[in-house]
Amino acid sequence: MPAEERVTARLSLRERRRAAATQEILDAAERHIVENGPAALSLRAIARDLGMTVQALYHYFPSWADLVTALITKAYDDMADAVQAALDAAAADATTSRVLIASEEYRRWAITHPERFQLLYGTPLRKYAAPANGPTTQAMIRMSSIFQREMFDGFTTAQLAAADAPAISPSMRAHLEQLPPHGLGALPPPAIALLLSAWGHLHGLVVLEVFGHTGFLGGHQAEIFRMGVQNLVEDVHSRIPDPGPDAM
Asked: Which residue in 22, 146, 147, 163 has its CB near the most CB atoms, within 10 A?
């Protein structure tokens, strides 16, 4: 029996019904985002579509902000699942950069789900603040850790610490060294700077496409994206020194 089925089998009837109702609410909320955009998300409209009262919906999501948090978390998780699945499917492909595989799946998910991507990276929703170190933060870390892992796979900590990132000021280096020891904080400051710079370029290309700013390229948008990712990966890796004879 698959793990998910075993977990479901252990839940009580009441818990299974609650899980099903919660999923139904999330599905309805995602439909509203697709049809009307994230800013128009309304508990009243969702309750009306599901044939329930707003008061009944509050039993599952005590506030609009709680629903938004769940939707953002789910979007990050769905995106991460898609990227990881693409990497798993290409595990035997030694000819294509795994960063490129992850990046192209990230782009595919974004242009397939533009409204959900906008929920994550578009104009911030008014009156919403993600809970500090809450589920949205953890889901975002999971997403970013995939690119961190693939970008620096095979390099040692010593190599990453010696990477050529000359723009780091002493104050910035000190700040990066104080990051929590998970996610980016697990990397030496030069590697963090290189990864953030690369991510900015990669993500920026996706944002431009999703928001319609590269439509003049027509069917060549995927080609431009692939070229950009290949260039940034080559640049990052060229800045990381060889391990040296002592590492042999």
From this structure: 163
